Structure formats: structure tokens, C-alpha cells
Amino acid sequence: MEENKESLKTSEDIVNYIKSSTSNSTDLVYRKVQVLDDILYVVYSEAMTSTVVISDFVIRSIKEVSTEEEKKQKLSTIQNDLDLYIDDNLELEKSKAAKFQKKKDNLKTKIASENLTDKIVNKLEENISISKAKRIDIVQDDIFYYIFSGFTCIIYNKEILAVETKGALDRSINIPSVENNIKGPKDAFTENYQTNVGLIRKRIKSEKLVLEENLIGRRSKTKVGMMYVSDIVRPGIVKYIKNKLKKIDIDAILDSNYIMELLEDSNKTSFPTMVSTERPDLVSYYLLQGRVALVVENSPFVLVLPAFMRDFLNNVEDNYQKSLDITLTKIIRYVAFVITIFTPAVYIALTTFNQEAIPTDLLVSFVSQRKGVPFPAFLEAFLMILSFEILREGDYRVPNSSGSTLSIVGALILGDAAVSAGIVSPIMIIVIAITMISGLMFVDVNLLNALRSWRIIFLILASIAGIIGVGVATIMLFTKIANTTSFTKAFSYPISPINIKGIIGKVLKRENISNDFQRESILTDNITKYRIDKEN
Amino acid sequence: MRYKIVIILIALILLNGLNNARELNQMAIVLAIGIDKVEDNEFLVTAFITNPQKQDSGSSSGEEKSTVLYKSKGNTIQNALRKIILESPKPLYLAHMKLLLISEEVAKDGLENSIDFFIRNYETNNGYNFVIVKNAQTQEVLELESPIEDTVVENITRSIEFTARDLGICNNNTLNDTLKKVIEGKEEVTIPSITVKNEKNNDNNNEQSAQKGTMNKESEDQVSSDNENKGSSSEKNISDLKIIVDSMAYFKDNKLQGYLTQQESMMCNILNNDSKKIILEVNGEENFVAEFISISSKKEARVENGEYFVDIEVNGVCNITEIKRDSESLNKNNVEIYKKEIEDTLENQINEYIKKCQNLYKTDILGYENLYMKKLNKEYKSISDIFSDEIFSKIKSDVSVNVKIPNDGGIYKKW
Q: Which of A418, B72, B213, B372 shows its CA 20 to 30 Å from the CA of A453?
């Protein structure tokens, strides 16, 4: 193919080449336009472009340029005739002739120096009333990338001019659908790459916010934009990520999760090591801490890295509320985190192995509730967790209209009827309910899945060895968290590379907006806020 | 990683796993055990078991009893308890015991025989009340029904808890506290007692036992005579019978000797630091009632010129809660007088109690031997053989009482 490209001399050749390459895909439109004596081809993908723009601006501009050129050419033929006439007859009027001579020379040199095609295309590039227009070369550039990105290619002899005529294929900016908030900005990323970049730029209007673009995916050719604030971020991590992105060799990138998986290949942990968010305010917040954001085309989720455990437990919305009471909110979140992993396991351990640790009245109540339940407590818990997970998965997939059906079936059949049928005990429903509700406090799906697997691990170990099993599982969990790194940074920061100030300031309390002048040294060398480094 | 997980799982199963797994509905929760003595020196063990009802099927199941009693006889407690399994569909689960009752006869035979099982058994945590049943069999007590609480066990433990807290005539010590003393062997134990009171024949059984408290010397005879009366008491209607907390039982060489009076029980608990609140009636020049909010005591042993002394310092904070009207002095300035009266009364009572212990009861429930052993070990070594026989009754006690009266009640407040 590459060799063939060299042999493409005329516009017909190029058009035929496109046709054969795309196997005559029907969404491609080839339009002929008469320019002077020649035929000019306008090629675009109907699906990707706005036909109004093409007809209004592209074709009209071509027509205008062509009529202009026609006039000029006529003028020059008249000029030539005039020259002959002067040579033959008007020797007397030499002064006039000298003037004409000068003009004639000028024209001739011009025509000689410029190829006609080139001239017309240049003219088009200058005159066309669309902001983004680019000359491309059939050999060097990938014409199909332009066509399928929504560009209109104007092919004239061997020259190709690509003009952006993208149609609106994206939804507008909506409120976040996953990360809901009460206060604070309510815009969310969309599938449009430019919109996403814009939503971030809108918040950090500084020349230091850098966007570096990569095309990843052999077939999808997806744009992956790396954004960082150049005087805050550590250059090392930018370089590291850049290298990793370059090494990616894959067919297609369909979502930002592909990038996430390709970047974190060295980590064998179920905990997410990148924040994946749909909120531009959160991304801006992280960028200003010295992190790097990856905006992936066609994905409404922007990745931020490195990420710490605390980022998944906390919510940026805390910063939009009064600070004093947020500590309680945060503690509740941590408690919920513990509850959602430990409760079923501790319940199983206590009721099947260590009954002496339960207060007598509670034990009597447990016994009365478990009367007549045929399954062992472990199986009971497992059944309930399983049915809840089925409900949850169903709830994600079901269309909104039948959501209420699901909740009725879930609440009544699985909750009430299961108890009165004697399949599970009411206390187990309570245990599983509090477990699952606590789990819903965290938005990140990856974290939720991680919690789910750990919950099962805890449950199994608890049912084998009681409280000792829970202890072993806890050690395993802590080891795993301590072992996890996110792009060379410890995932358990600020607890594992201990930073007392960080624990008190960022984990227990929320960030003190009015008094905090420092960034965290784990992420940046530029510690002091409000300072712009002149060297970078 | 997979290798490690397999190792962990195998280790868990081999070292501990599934060994003592037990589903909740496969065990009989024992709330109390009563130990009686029957013929042929056999123990009659009564296990008080909860039988929790399924809550939502209350109407269909009718009136099932929420508690069950299992009784069995055996030469040893272990033997008797094991025989209960013949009767009970579920194995007994002792970790949630709240009460251990022993009857007088068992207590008279010596505590070691009856409670050794509970020392050695790993399942019981021994953090429960240990009570002597006076004038009755433990099985009778456990058969009673509680008017307020769900179970009779709850009734007894609550009564003891609040009596100990608010009146100070019994202590809320657990079996472990008692066991410590029994095993050390240096200090004699005092254990709370309960008795059964017949509401209809108020003047019959109960007054006797109240009197008996004061006349300790005859207590042994009375115990035996009460046992003879036992047949008649069991004929009475169960709903008329009530359990009341009685004064403390004192032991010598871990054998039941008799019962203290209520006042002596109070003093006993003050000196053992077992009670925080007591109510003291003062009948001197002034007649009034003082309620101690907190009270504590310290004992120091000393030897001077071959004589043995124990300094006892009692500190308390009290409120004057009631003053008899005939006293003239409704005067704030008389606080000092009240204070002195309280201190004198308390001192007298303590001295009286100590004297009784030394001369009448002849048992070291004061813990003097323990005190000498710990504080004056050198001196004690030389006298350890003769301590209980000769020295104990000669020890002189030097009691000093300090009382603070921060409040004088609301009488002088004018709103």
C-alpha cells in the first residue's frame, strides 16, 4: 500500500484508492466540483460530518475561489494578447509599454513559480471560513484518520486539504450520574474529548496547565490527553507515564478503563490504583496537588494518578461544606468501610465459634431468631450476599422503568418472605443490610468490587477459624494494602509512610481551605501554594 | 501467592479450624447451675436453660416455657452435668452462665469439692455471681418464677447487683473473686446469700431467719432445723414465694460457718472495699440518716514491741438525707457535729464487727493474715504456723474514719 501511495498522481487516483481501501463504504461521499478545467473532489464521511457546514462553507468557498481564478486567468489571457499587440504596433508609446512590460514580467514569474494546483489550494486554505484547515500529504499522513475524525478532504490533483467539519455526535454536559453531590459544581465529563479538556481548562486558566496528546490504538486511534500543571507536578512521573503510554500497543481503546488496566499492569491488587472520576472539579483539585490526569477520548471518566486509599474513601464535596462537622462525616465513612468488610465475617465468627463474646441477652435473641433455620450460618450469609449481589447487578442493568419492580421483588421476596419461610434468620438480613448499605457509601465501582471480594475472603476464613480467621484475613488485607503501590507511591499513604500531619489534616479533618498553604511533599517538590516556579 | 493461601487455609483448619464450630441452634444456653446435696453424699445438679422462642410464630406455638430445668444426680459435678445430656437434646453451653447457686449443706462440706469443676472448666468464664441459698434447696429457687424479670436468674442477679450498689449489705463479687481467695487460702471468703420468703406467712419463716442473722452463734443449729422445715415450705404455693437477698455468709477453712448480720455485712463490705454506697442510721444525740456516696478503706499492718496492729483508715463522702424532726438543730453550722457523729458511729460499728470476727466467729474474713503475709512478710514467716490460732484474735485494730459532707440537702436553698 505504501508503495502504491507514491504512484497516486491525480485526484481520480486518490479517490479510487480511498474507495478501494474502504471497500466502497456507503457513508463516504465523493463530490465533484468543477474548478477551471479541472475536477476537484470533496470527500467526507456522511456519518461524522455536518452536511450543512460542508455545503455552506466548503463548497461555497471552493466555488468562490474558482470563479476568482477564472477571472484572473481571463485577465492574464487578455494581458498576453495585449503584449503581442504592444510588440507589434505601439512602439511609440514606450513609456506605457514599459509599464506593461513590468506587469507582464511579474505575472510570468508568478505563474512560473507557482503551480496552478498549489495556488488554488492555497487560496482555498486562506479563504475557507472554517477555523481548522490543514494541508496533508497522501504519503505521510493517514487520510482515513482525517476522514473518520469528521474532516472533509478536498482533493485537487495531488494536493489534499483537510477541513474540519465535525458533526455533533456528543451529548451535552450533564450532571454527574455516578458521583452525585448536593453542593458544588454539577457538571460532568462527556464522551467528547475537547469538551472534557475544556471543562478542566475552564477551572485552571493558567499557562502552566499542559496538555500532551497521544494517539493510542492501532485501529481506534483514540486520543489520550495527559494533563498536568507543569510547575507543580514532578517531571519524573510525567516522563514515566509518557513512556508507559508510548509502549501501549493495542487494537483499540474503547474506554478509559483500558488505559487504566494497561498502565497498572504491574499491580496485582483488586484495589484501584487510579482515580476514575466524572467530575471536572475533582480532577482540577487533584491536578493542583501535583497529580496527572489522563483524558481519554470517548470516555466520560477521566483518570487521575497516582491515587491513594484515602482518595476513594473521601469525597471532594467535603470541601464545599462547612468544615467543623465534616470530621464526623469522615469518621462515619471509615466506620462504614470497616463495617462493610468485617460485619458478616465477625457475625459468623461470633455465632459459630465465639459465642461467649456475645452478651447473653443478645445471644438468646440470636438463638430465638435462628430457630428452625436449616442452613449453617455461613451458608445463610453466603446466600444473602449472593442474592444481594444479584439484585445489585440487576439494578445496574435494568432500564429505569422496571427499577421499582426490582426493588419490590428484592425487598419483599428476598427480605420478608425469606424470613417467614424460615430460610434465613432476621438478624442475618440485618447484618447483610448494614454491610451492603455501608458499602454503597463509596462511589468507585472498582473499590466496591474489591470490597466485595475481600468480604468473601473474610467470610470464608471466619467460617473456618472464627475470630482467628478474621484476624488472619485482616493481616492479609493490611499486607495487601501496604504492598500496593500506585505509580511508585504507597497506596496506604498517609498511614504507611506515616505522616501525622497528613492523617490529622487530610484524613480526619477536611482540608483547611483558608489556612493551608502547603502541598503534600509526596506528590510535588513545589510545596508552597501560590508560588509559580519561574524556571519551568 | 496461591501457594501461600493454601498454606494458610490448611494451617487454619489443622490448628484450629472447625473444631469448636457450633451453630447457635445446636446448643442449650445454661444461665444458672444450682448444686444441692442429696442422700449418699451425691450432688443434685440443676441446670437452668433458656429455651428461646421463635418470635414471629408466637401465636401458633402456644405457651411454651421460655426456660427449662434439667436435674441429675452424680458423685461429682462433672458426672452429674454429663448425665444431663441423656435428657437434653442439645449439649449444654456453660459460657453464658450468670449465676452459681449452692445450698447450705454443700457449702458446709467445703467449697473446694463443689466448685473445683468451675475452676478447671475452660468454657465457663467465672465472671458470674456466686450465691449461697439459705434455708432452701437451690432447685426450689430455680423453680420459682420472677414477678418482674423474665427469669428467676435475672431476678437474683439484678437484686444482688443493686443491693450491693445501693445498700452495701452484699457484694457483687464474681466467682473468680471468690476463687482467688479460696485458692490462695489465706483469706476467708464471704459470699452473698439469698433466701426464699413466703409472702402469705410473713411472720413464719422469714422473721426467723432475720433473727437468726443477729444470733449468729446459733445459726448452725437453726440451719439444721430449717432443713427439717423444708418439707412444709415446698407445699406452699409457688406464686407466694419471693426471693430476697440476705446478709453475707462467712466461711472458715472454706466451710460455711454462719451468717453475718446486715450491719456486719455492711462493715465487711466496707473493709473489703466491695461496696461504694451504704446507708448509715445514726442514733446518738442526733437522729439522722447519712447516705454514703463513696466509701473506701485502707489497711496497714504493723508490729510494735511484739504486739500486732492493723491500722484501718476509712474515707467516705456522704450526704445527710434525713433528719428526725425532734432534733433541734436544723442549722448549717452543725455540720461538724453531724460529721463527728457519723465518724463515731461508723468507727464503733467497725470495731464491734472486728471484735466479733476475732472473738465470736473466729474466722479471718478481715483478711488480716493475707495483709501480714503481703506487707510484713518477714515477720509473718515466723508466725505463719500459729497465726490463725493464736495471733489473729490478739491483733489490735486502730480504726480511723474520715467523712466529708459536701452537701446538706436542699433544705437551705431558697428558690
A: A418
Question: Residue B52 and residue A365: Cβ atoms within 8 Å?
Answer: yes
For range A286-293, the mean pLDDT: 92
Q: For residues A501 and B257, give the distance between their C-alpha atoms in angstroms, rounded to a whole number.
A: 65
Average pLDDT rounded to a whole number, residues B167-185: 84
| Chain B residues touching residue A463 (CB < 8 angstroms) | 21
CA–CA gap between residue A159 and residue A98 (Å, rounded): 37
A482-491, B260-269, B333-342: least confidently modelled range: B333-342
Q: Rounded to whole angstroms, how far apart are CA atoms B377 and B381? A: 6
Q: What pLDDT was estimated at residue A474?
A: 94
Q: What is the pLDDT of residue B233?
A: 42
* CB neighbourhood size of A447 (10 A): 19
Nearest residue to B12 via CA among A158, A469, A331:
A469
For residue B238, pLDDT over 90 is answered with: no
Distance CA A432, CA A420 (A): 17
H/E stretch holding A161 reads: strand A159-164
Sole residue written with cell 500497543: A249
The grid cell for B231 is: 418439707
Cβ-based interface (< 8 Å): residues of A facing B: 268, 351-353, 355-356, 360, 363-373, 376-377, 419-420, 461, 463-466, 468-469, 472, 476
Q: Which pLDDT band, with edges at 50, 70 and 90, does A294 fall under?
A: very high
Unique residue bearing C-alpha cell 518477714? B378
Nearest partner of A240 among A261, A204, A264, judged by Cα: A264
CA A410 to chain centre: 34
Q: Where are the domains of chain A?
A: 2-164, 193-307, 324-490
Q: Name the E strands within A171-231.
A: 209-216, 222-229
User: What 3-state class would DSSP assign to B250?
Assistant: strand
Q: Do the Cβ atoms of A301 and A277 come closer than 8 Å?
A: yes
Contact (CB<8Å) A371/B54: yes
Indicate left, alpha or beta for B282 from its phi (over 0: left) and psi (-120 to 50: alpha): beta
Domains of chain B: residue spans and CATH: 21-266 (no CATH), 276-412 (3.30.300.210)
- In one-letter notation, the amino acid at residue B410 is G
Provide the 10 A C-beta neighbour count for residue A529.
Answer: 11
pLDDT at A82 over 80: no
Question: Residue B27: CB partners within 8 Å, gap ≥ 6?
Answer: A355, A367, B90, B91, B92, B93
Measured CA to CA in angstroms, residue B112 lies from B76, B100, B103, B107, B179 at distances of: 12, 14, 14, 9, 9
Strand-pair partners of A225? A213, A295
Is pLDDT at A394 greater than 60 in this prediction?
A: yes
A363 contacts B12? CB cut-off 8 A? no
Smallest Cα distance from A364 to chain B, Å: 6
Report residue A391 CA to chain centroid gap: 29
Choose among A368, A466, A472: nearest Cβ to B52: A368
Q: In this structure, are residues A523 and A494 in contact, taking their beta carbons and an 8 Å threshold?
A: no
* Test mutation, A428, A464, A484, chain B, max B CBs within 10 A: A464
**Rounded Cα distance, A404 and A240, in Å:** 48
Please tell me which of A158-162, A231-235, B116-120, B175-179 the model is most confident about, judged by mean pLDDT.
Answer: A231-235
Q: Does position B232 have pLDDT exceeding 50, yes or no?
A: no
Q: Which residue of B has its CA nearest to A462?
A: B17
Report cis status (omega within 30 of 0) of the bond before B147. Answer: no
**CA angle, residues A382, A385, A390, in degrees to nearest 5:** 125
Least confident stretch, A331-345, A349-363, B2-16, B355-369: B2-16
Min mean pLDDT across A135-144, A253-262, A388-397 is at A135-144
Confidence of residue A521 (pLDDT cuts 50, 70, 90): confident
